[in-house]
Amino acid sequence: TFTGAVGVYVRIGRVCHIAINLEGSNNSLTGDIYVGGLPFTSDNTSGYMPANSVPFMEVANVSLAGGYTNMYGRVNSSDSRLQILQSAGTAHASMAAGGGLNSGAVLRTSFTYQTT
After folding, report:
1. Which of 16, 18, 69, 92 has the fewest Cβ atoms nearer than 10 Å?
2. Residue 44 pairs with which residues in a beta bridge?
3. What pLDDT is attached to residue 27?
4. 69 vs 61, 77, 89, 103, CA distance in Å?
5. 11 beta partners
């Protein structure tokens, strides 16, 4: 659960650019973290992720599971949510696999994805 979420977007044709600022905390995650409410459903091409490896430009008060060194987001095909994941080399996992959003967590990013 995010206690504060602000986002803006610009869409030109089938391309949508998003900027978001998320604040919140949840130390007892039981599933994947998704940020819902993207303004448009992503492209639905099979085997294609319309936005993969979305970097977080600012991160504060976030814990990663042991051995994980990075967090990133992605928009899966036919979806209107940003999924937040953690990674270590070629290993990827949901944030619920030992990670967490601590008190006062902040995530900021901007990214572009292809819409339907």
Report:
1. 69
2. none
3. 56
4. 14, 26, 8, 20
5. 16
